[in-house]
Structures are given as structure tokens and as C-alpha cells.
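#struct-help
A.M.: can someone run this one for me? Single chain, 356 residues.
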Amino acid sequence: MASLLFSPLTIKKITLKNRIVISPMCQYSAIDGFANDWHLVHLGSRASGGVGLIIQEATAVSPEARISPSDLGIWKDEHIQKLKSINEFIVSQNSIPGIQLAHAGRKASVSAPWEGNKKLDLGQGGWQTVSSSAIPYHDDEPFLPTALDKNGIQKVVSDFKSATKRAAEAGYQVLEIHGAHGYLLHQFLSPLTNNRTDVYGGSFENRIRLTLEIVEAVQSEWPSNLPLFVRISATDWAEGGWNPEESVQLSAILKEKGVDLIDVSSGGLVSYQQIPLHPNYQVPFAEKIKKEANILTGAVGLITHAVQAEDILKNNQADLVLFARESLRNPNLPLDFAKDLNEDIQWPKQYERAKN
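D.P.: on it. C-alpha cells below:
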């Protein structure tokens, strides 16, 4: 019997040749938001390695939306050209190019991991961060984030809208809104980081308002026949935080609004989170959202083997399986997985002599 992992999935007008997805992973290798040959080789090698969909790393909708000064951006038209050529290569390998649009909020203005992942001071290459409320991620940070006012919120919505227009021009075929991992939208969703008293704080309906406004802004520019995903953290792994029940509730609303798939991750909001790491630790959240909100889901997190991924699909726990670190270790993951599952898949012509 053919494996589910290598079965196609059609979402709107896009058909993924398999259910293997490259999860967005920051490369901290851009200058002024511009992609370069590192991004071409990194993303391109995963495309030639056989994946169905590649979601480009968290790509900033404005300069202040970057996590680090080295993040990719799509806040100006000049960014489009290189991204377009990378996407053309991905398509030439029979893979689908996707982008994750992001705003880091209070987790912005930090150095790259290999430079210590430290909050950058305002005078030393850093910038003023923004959030739902003036609550820092770490207590010892050199400055507090600014709580966004009405104009600030409108700017964020407008930045997502403009970035979406550029993403369509650059040839992406899947767009994902980043609402997870403690970045700006997540900071509005969770009561641990949102103590606002206006229409964006307090009740569940108020805390999800910005996410829904951004979905609507993105949809005004994103072609209606192309897939739209939202990544969420299903739980904060912290008492009193955003929880799986709220995730189901939000996912059902997003489905109603026309979102096609929920990319289900978890955590990242608070430094004191307690995550019980083990293989498949996030998969039950993807399953819960899939079944209770009746929407397509993607599972991610410590999934490293072909049979493990196949079982997730077989057990109807998710519709796509996303790989992050395992795909960093092995850009040819699908070629190896096909062998493990006795699937005969097409290899790049240039590599065919190594197939058997």
C-alpha cells in the first residue's frame, strides 16, 4: 500500500506532491532584509531534496519586526528580486515555495544565536521594540517594549498587508502568518503578555482581534485561490497562559474566515515555560485542533523518522508533517524517507545514479 507521507495533498489550486514540509527556520544571514546566495542554496537544496512545500523563515514585515538585524525582510520592493529567483528555482524542482510573514514584537532587537542571542541596546544596533503591553521577555532587559497604541496597531496591520502584496509578486504559492513562539501576535493572544484594557485586551474575543485583523488584511492582497496558513502555539506551557481549548476556538474562527491550515507548534512566549520535550510532544495539539475545529493541521516538533511521520498521518493526527532540525541535518530527507517506506519517488536527474 502506498504511504500517506508520499501521497499528494491539494489545498485550493495548489497540489503538494507529498506531505513533507520544511518548517520556517531563521538563518540569521541577511543584510538589511535582503536574501542572498545562502538562502538560495539553503532553500534550493531542500527543494532538490524532494520536499513538497518549503516555508521560508520568519520574514519581517518591517525593519522593527525582525528578531535580529540579520533576519530576512519583505518590507520594501527591492527585496522582491532575489526572493523571486529563489522561488523560481524551488518551482523548477517540483516543490512549492511558501513564506512565513512575521513580527517579533518584544522578542525583536536581539543578536544572532552565535553572537549570544542578547538584547541589543538602542545605541548598539538595537531598536525600540513594541508589544501588546510594556512587559519585557526577560526581567533584566535594558529597555521595556512599548505598548502599541491605535496608530501603532494600524501600522502593523498595514505592514502585513504590504508584505503580502510583495509576497504574491515574488511568486510564493503558500503564505503563513506567524502567530506563535511568543512573537507579536502571540503576545496579544496570551493573557500572560497582554494586560490591555482597550478592545485588544481582556476577553478572548479582544485578544484574538489583532490576529483576525491581520488575516483580513492579508486576504485583501493574497490571491484567494492560494493557500493561507496560520502558525500558532497551542499552549504557553505556563499557568494562566494561552491554552489548547482557546487554540481550538481560534482555529474554528480562522477556518470560518477562510484560513486553510493551522500549523500547530507550542511555547516560546515566556522564559519560565516548562516544556516536556519528547518525540511527537506537540502532535496531540495538532490532532485536537484537526478534530475539534475541523480544519487541516500541520504537526511539528521532534519528528525525525519516516515511520514516525507516516504514523501521524495514518492515525489522522495531522495532514502535513513539518521538519525543522532534522531537515538541517539532512537536506535530502524525502529521498531517504522514500527508501525507508519503500516508495519509488523521482530523484533530480543529476542525482539519479546514486538512487540504487
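A.M.: thanks! The two ends are 21 Å apart (CA to CA).
D.P.: also worth noting: The CA atoms of residues 103 and 258 lie 22 Å apart.
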